[in-house]
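PT: before anyone asks, these are the final sequences, not the draft ones from last week. 1069 residues across everything. Please model them as a single complex and drop the result in this thread when it's through.
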Amino acid sequence: MIPAAFDYVVPRTLPEAVAELVKHGQEAKVLAGGHSLIPLMKLRLSTPSFLVDIGRVGNLTYIREEDGHVAIGALTSHHDIEFSELLKNKLPLLTSAASQIGDPQVRNRGTIGGAAAHADPFGDFPACLLALDAEFKAVGPRGERSIAARDFFVDTFTSSLEPNEILREIRIPTPPPGSRGTYLKFSRRSQDWAIVAVAAQVRVTGHEVTQVAVGLTGMGSRPIRASGVEQALRGKAGHDDELRAAAERAVDGTDPQQDLNGSPDYRRHLAQVLTRRALEQITAHH
Amino acid sequence: MAISQMVGASIKRREDPRLVTGTGSYVDDLPQTALVHMHVVRSSEAHARILGIETGRAKEADGVVAILTGKDLKPEFGAPLPVTVCFVPDKKYPNHYPMAIDKVHYVGEPVAIVLASSRAAAEDAGERIEVKYQSLPAVVDIEKAIEAGAPVLHEELGSNLSYDVKFAAGDIEAAFKEAEITIKQRLIQQRLIPIAIEPRGVLADYKTFSNKLTVWSSTQIPHFVKVWLAVILGISESNVRVVAPEVGGGFGSKIRVYPEEILTALASRRLGRPVKWIEDRNENVKATHHGRDQIWDVEIAAKKDGTVLGIRPTQWLNLGGYCSQFGTFQVLGMLVAQGAYKMKAFDGRSVGVFTNTTPTDAYRGAGRPEATYLIERVMDLVARETGIDPVEIRRKNFVRAEDQPFTTLLGLTYDSGDYTITLDKALEMVDYAALRREQAEKRKQGTYIGIGLCTYIEICGLGPAAATQAATGVSLWGMSVVNLHFTGKATVIIGSSPHGQGHETTYAQVASDVLGIPVEDIDVQHGDTAIGPMGMDTYGSRSTALDGNAVHISAMKVQEKARKIAAHLLEAAEGDVVYENGKAFVKGTPSKAVTIQEIAMAAFQTNRLPKGMEGGLEATTFFDPSNFVWPFGAHICVVEVDGETGATKILRYVAVDDCGTRINPMVVDGQLHGGIAQGIGQALFEEGVYDEAGQLRTGSLVDYLIPTASDLPSFELAATFTPSPVNPLGTKGIGEAGTIASTPAVMNAIVDALQPFGVRDVAMPATPQKLWQLMHRNGGTTR
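LR: through. Structure below.
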């Protein structure tokens, strides 16, 4: 379990890092927290001959609110997200998800940018970022561009980042007051990848569901927006039977896989149960 | 009267400071110069002929010293790897060499070794080796392997059947004739992968001109390894030394002579340099043997009042690609399947089968977890069928205290035990009656609580020499040397080879009480064949019942000699001198005592000794007890199963264990905590899975799930004390009890929780998906 030989650079700025990627093309990989890439390299399932370690690029670790958005630097660790006061107040969906990723060692090293760029369909942040309509700021040889969440996650381990682009920042519209979120994850052990997980963000104003966004983990080759659930619930009062009926639609448009932990049928069932539980939890006491 | 102070004291383990600070030395930490690193190229095929191995490109790689294949080393394999009798003397099995020569039989079998200047260079070169295989159809399933037309692994054996033997006693036909109730059930013992935290590792150093071989190995059995290295390499046993340094867990997975121990030694002999191999986790899951993988079919004859008349179990044992050294030890399950209960007849059959999978061998409990799972599920099946509470079924069928020593149908004799005392205590701890009421209430609300019992007995302390030789082919006993130094400090050498059991602490406690020397002044040495005459090592919860007692006996012998020397020094008659708390004196005059320090000094000033007495203050003991030891206990598990998702949560886990005298209760609790966790692992999480082509689908710890602290409840432990009558300390074994008891306790609880859904059995592991399917096969209706 020793990786194949590779070369390694530690650029100090994003332009330098991008220049290294341009220079080495397909042979190069970006290294952030390393908690996905290094295990793959140790198993020699991934054999990049060049690593660009962005760990010492400055100004990529922050969580701040600006212009109606929460901006999170790509190198912000899961741990920092889990314990951010700002996020606890404004985006508890993210703190909830962060607290359920792997174990403390993983959360200390893993980064939100790395997790997003890795685009693991069983990763926890992608479904959250999709539900929250996040925007991804990426830097490449031709400067910076912005990618919407719905365009960012393409397929298993595939994002819409170009090989020579680096994710710099994730921006999330600050939810309006009264909007609440949670992440319910179902796995066999606490530290495992999700079999299925649900990211839900809901706002009940008076007696009306005015905002509802649901993202699903583990229900296809990329995170999925449960638009059926959203349509069914938007504008409703949020009564139990409405939540239940809406949750039934969590299976719409999904294509879950078969593996050792679950069949497609079981995953569809879990998606419905977890969606209902998430909606009940968020809308309780309204 | 000698006052026992250290035995029974929960002093801290002296092993821990070095282990928790990272200053202990495992094989990979040992310093060596001129080291060569070995990488093993392993078969990617489950069943194939080797047409050729192309090593040219690899030999040219940077840092490569040599590359060797099975064909290259075949002339140096003086014998195949050992296979012991283990209850099946007439089994058929193939010769198993440390490296495949013409054919491979499982994914992970060694096919070539790369020797290089660094581990990275060895692995890089390994990737350049091309093995040309002719693939053959593979078979991984026990039942498919013995169907007509199945691919045969070892053509010379004619089929994949290794053995088919009966273990029967009593009139089973009469039992079934008398039966008012008969039940048939298939029980699955899934394949388990042991996952010691430290994978295996070997460092071999063959000194060319002296022809002396030293091997450091992460093994449970350095003494066995020494003998077999001598045999297989064809060198004098007196020139072989094997050391087990710190060993980071074994659980049975380090109980056999392994190919890599032979390969590193052969390579070192060829190269004249030390050779090191350290197993990585990727190799560990397929190159280190697996456990369990059995199907048990049972037929039960019982009466309506819950009396079990007889059982007819068949054990289908998946041996894997070869017969491992103790591969049929799991047949022990047959011999102890009667459990804590009386019955009239037992009609057992065990069948061993080869498949294209990693060989199986002992794994924590080795046969006893299987037997206990069988009989404890049988008790619950009878309870379900008769409508009688599982507690009452057990009480009705228990061997009673007045029946002890009780001889089972198959002729084993239990040493002691009143099985109602642990059961009563456990029931009281959980408040059983209240728990049953709560269960009934919650069921009405759609919450599914389950209560599971396991009232186990366990055979351990292997264990009388004649009996173990007859059954397993190996004569087993305990060994100790107790040696006092000039200044009255002691060295204790033991024949057991601890790897987490705490013998350095507990055996010092034993010697301290007898010698009256502070525990800090007693050093316990082990795991090195260069010290002490011989040892039978550590497995099967045998050590304390044998080697621990051997320490007691040697210390008593030293005390006796000390008393004689003291009498001489005091110019008193031997019969008048007593020895207490490290001092000897004439009865009644303790003020005129000689201390053990003075006695020890005199022992090395031979002029001060009685005429004819040998110098030194040392004793050796080979302890051969009259019987095995039989701990017992009652475990109760309470679970809640989520009716919607199938997730199981353990709400409470109560364990009352009786292992006789507890030398260090804290060490006993530690053994129980780990054991219970491991058994819960089998019940809820662990399963080694192969696909039909023989590829391991659970090849990493992402797919092979072992329990972690956050997945487990706090265990509630309690004890009763029934000293064993067959050894002077009264100790029994505790290393495996937790594992043996917890798996059936958890599974009985889960089956109990799902009773409203008509579920009678759940195949392990009880995954959420499986439970969901069982609950929803009738559309989720309860009845």
